[in-house]
Automatic annotation (TrEMBL), chain A:
Classification lineage: Eukaryota, Metazoa, Ecdysozoa, Arthropoda, Hexapoda
Acidic residues: bias regions: 246-262
Keywords: Cytoplasm, Nucleus, tRNA processing
Family named by the database record: Belongs to the ELP5 family.
Protein name, per record: Elongator complex protein 5
Organism: Drosophila sechellia
GO molecular function: tRNA binding
GO biological-process terms attached to the record: establishment of mitotic spindle asymmetry; tRNA wobble uridine modification
Disordered: region residues: 180-214, 227-262
PANTHER family: ELONGATOR COMPLEX PROTEIN 5
Automatic annotation (TrEMBL), chain B:
GO molecular function annotation: insulin receptor binding
Taxonomic superkingdom: Eukaryota
Protein name, entry field: Elongator complex protein 6
One GO CC annotation: elongator holoenzyme complex
Annotated metabolic or biological route of this protein: tRNA modification; 5-methoxycarbonylmethyl-2-thiouridine-tRNA biosynthesis
Family listed: Belongs to the ELP6 family.
C-alpha cells in the first residue's frame, strides 16, 4: 500500500500531483495516515479557504500544536502531531512564498510535529515563479511523492544519514485503496518481510555490493560458447606422439632399425 | 427552447450542485448557457436568482430572454436581483464605486460584499437561490489580479457551503488563456462545463462542443466522475444539441 511508503520517519512529505486530484488532497492524506494507524487526535489540518488570508490562522496552529499548548506531551504514548497543510495553490492564493516557506520551516523544526504533509499540483500554481517555489518545497521535503500518471509514481526519500533513494512504482488505484508495486521487480509495498517465501529461502539473495558478481543469462551463454586456445574440442582415436622438430634438430625421416633383419 | 441543452448539462434539476463553473474557450460564445439557466431558474416557483452582469448590461439579458421565451422584467425586484456593474460604470463614470477604491476595498471585495448582502436579504424567503456571474474574465479588464479573482471565487464557494440551497454559477471566457485561474476555479465545484470550439474548423450546422464533467463521488484516493460530450447550435429562438456523429455532411 502507498501508505507504507509515505508514512515513515521522514518529517516533511511533499506530494506532487500531476493528475489533478487536488479536490481530494486532504482526504487522500488523511486516508494514508489512518491506514497506518495514526489516531485521529494526532491528525491536525490547517483550515482552508478564506481563513488562510489571516496570519493569525497560521500562528494559532503553531501555538497550539507546534508548541504543544494542548498538553499532550504528558501522555506517554504521544509521538507528535501529523499536520496536513492546505494545498500549495490555496496557500499561494493568500500568502507570499516567503511566508509559506517560513511556516513550513517552523513546523519542520518543531519537536511536537511528527510529520507535515503538503500537496502541490503544478497545473494549479498561480504564481509567475511556480517552478522555483515547487523546487524550494522539494528542497525542504524529506520525502517527495510524485503522482505521474494513473499507473506510475516515483518516490524520492532522503535519509537522515544523507542517503537518497529514488524509486519508481506502478500503482493500482481505486476509491478506497492505493496499491503500489516496485518497477524493479521487488516485493510489493506492504508485503510482510518477517516470513520470507520458501523460494527465497532456497535461493538467498546475494549481499548488495558495488561489484557485479552475478552473471546475466546472456553472459552465461557467451561464457559457454567461448573456445579457449589449445583446448581440445574432441577426444583423439588412439595415443599419438606429435613431435615438431626445431630448426637445430637433426631429424632423420628414415627408421633407424630398418637394416635389422628381425 | 433551452430544455434540451440544460438536460444535456444536467442543469434542469430544481436543486443544483453548490458550485458550477463554465469554461469558455477562445473564439466561442457560451453566453447562451447563462441565458438558458436564467430562464429555467426564473420559471421555478419561489426560486431566487441574482444576476451579476459583467460582460453585458441587463438589457442584453432581457433581449436574450425574450428570444428564449421569458420576460426578466416581470421577475426583477421579486425573484430576480441584478448587480449591473457595466450600467453603473456607464452612468457614474469614473466616480462609480467599481472603479474607485472605496474604503480600501478592491473591486472583488466590493463585489463579494454586494453579493453577500443580496443573498442575506433574499435567501431566507426562497426555496433555492442561484447566483450567476457573467463573466469572470471581465474582472481582469477592470484591474483585478489573478489572485484576487481566485480569492473572489473562494469567497463565493465558501458562501455556497454555508447555505445548503445556494448555487453559484461562474463563467470564465478565454479559459485557454487563463488556464491556471480556470483550473483553480473549476476545482471548487462539482460540475464543470467546457464550451469548446470545433477543432477541425467551422461548420454551418454546429457552433461548438460542450464537455460536461461531473464529480459523482469523492473517494479517499480517486473521484468517481462522468464525462459527456455534446454538440450545440444556437439558433435565433432556441438552442439545439446533438450527439457527436449525429450531424453529417450532406453530399
Amino acid at each position: 500500500m502507498l501508505s507504507n511508503l509515505v508514512v515513515t520517519k521522514q518529517k516533511v512529505v511533499l506530494i506532487i500531483d500531476e493528475l489533478n486530484r487536488e479536490r481530494i488532497a486532504p482526504k487522500f492524506i488523511g486516508s494514508l495516515l489512518h491506514e497506518q494507524g495514526q489516531g485521529a487526535d494526532t491528525i491536525k489540518a490547517l483550515p482552508t479557504g478564506v481563513s488562510l488570508k489571516h496570519v493569525a490562522t497560521f500562528e494559532a496552529l503553531i501555538d497550539k500544536y507546534a508548541n504543544n499548548n494542548t498538553g499532550s506531551t504528558t501522555d506517554s504514548n504521544f509521538t507528535g502531531f501529523n499536520v496536513i497543510l492546505p494545498t500549495l495553490a490555496d496557500l499561494l492564493c493568500y500568502q507570499t512564498p516567503a511566508f509559506i516557506f517560513g511556516f513550513l520551516n517552523r513546523l519542520r523544526r518543531s519537536e511536537n510535529v511528527r510529520r507535515v504533509f503538503l500537496w502541490a499540483s503544478p497545473q494549479h500554481l498561480q504564481d509567475p515563479h511556480a517552478d522555483y517555489i515547487l523546487a524550494g518545497c522539494e528542497y525542504l521535503a524529506e520525502l517527495v511523492l510524485r503522482l505521474e500518471t494513473d499507473k506510475l509514481l516515483s518516490l524520492i526519500s532522503r535519509k537522515p544519514g544523507g542517503g537518497v533513494t529514488n524509486r519508481r512504482y506502478s500503482c493500482e488505484v481505486s476509491k478506497t485503496q492505493f496499491k503500489v508495486t516496485p518497477l524493479d521487480g521487488g516485493r510489493p509495498a506492504g508485503a510482510s518481510s518477517k516470513q520470507p517465501s520458501p523460494e527465497a529461502e532456497q535461493t538467498p539473495e546475494p549481499a548488495s555490493s558495488t561489484f557485479k558478481i552475478e552473471l546475466d543469462e546472456d553472459e552465461v551463454l557467451a561464457r559457454n560458447a567461448l573456445t579457449l586456445p589449445y583446448e581440445r574440442t574432441s577426444e583423439p582415436p588412439e595415443g599419438n606422439i606429435i613431435y615438431t622438430p626445431d630448426a637445430d634438430d637433426d631429424f632423420d625421416e628414415e627408421d633407424p632399425d630398418e637394416d635389422l633383419c628381425i | 427552447m433551452a430544455t434540451s441543452v440544460l438536460l444535456a448539462c444536467g442543469l434542469n434539476e430544481q436543486k443544483l450542485p453548490g458550485f458550477i463553473h463554465i469554461s469558455e474557450e477562445s473564439n466561442v460564445d457560451g453566453s447562451f448557457l447563462i441565458s438558458c439557466v436564467l430562464g429555467q431558474r426564473l420559471r421555478i416557483s419561489n426560486a431566487g436568482t441574482l444576476l451579476v452582469c459583467l460582460q453585458h448590461h441587463y438589457q442584453h439579458y432581457f433581449n436574450a430572454g425574450m428570444r428564449l421565451g421569458y420576460n426578466t422584467n416581470i421577475f426583477q425586484g421579486k425573484t430576480l436581483g441584478v448587480i449591473d456593474v457595466l450600467s453603473d460604470m456607464a452612468g457614474e463614470g469614473l466616480a462609480s464605486k467599481w472603479l474607485t477604491n472605496t474604503e480600501g476595498q478592491t473591486l472583488t471585495e466590493q463585489l463579494v460584499d454586494d453579493i453577500r448582502a443580496q443573498v442575506e436579504s433574499n435567501y431566507a424567503n426562497r426555496n433555492s437561490y442561484t447566483v450567476l456571474i457573467d463573466n469572470l474574465s471581465i474582472l481582469f479588464n477592470l484591474g483585478a489580479s489573478k489572485l484576487q479573482v481566485q480569492q473572489f471565487c473562494q469567497d463565493l464557494a465558501a458562501l455556497a457551503k454555508e447555505r445548503e440551497k445556494l448555487t453559484v454559477i461562474t463563467k470564465l471566457s478565454n479559459s485557454d488563456i487563463y488556464q491556471l485561474t480556470d483550473n483553480n476555479v473549476a476545482k471548487l465545484g462539482q460540475v464543470r462545463i467546457q464550451v469548446l470550439r470545433l477543432k477541425s474548423g467551422v461548420f454551418r450546422e454546429v457552433d461548438g462542443k460542450l464537455l460536461i464533467e461531473r464529480v459523482l463521488d469523492e473517494g479517499n484516493y480517486a473521484c468517481e466522475e462522468t464525462r459527456k460530450e455534446v454538440l450545440y447550435k444556437v439558433n435565433d429562438r432556441n438552442v439545439k444539441v446533438f450527439a457527436p456523429g449525429e450531424i453529417g455532411v450532406k453530399v
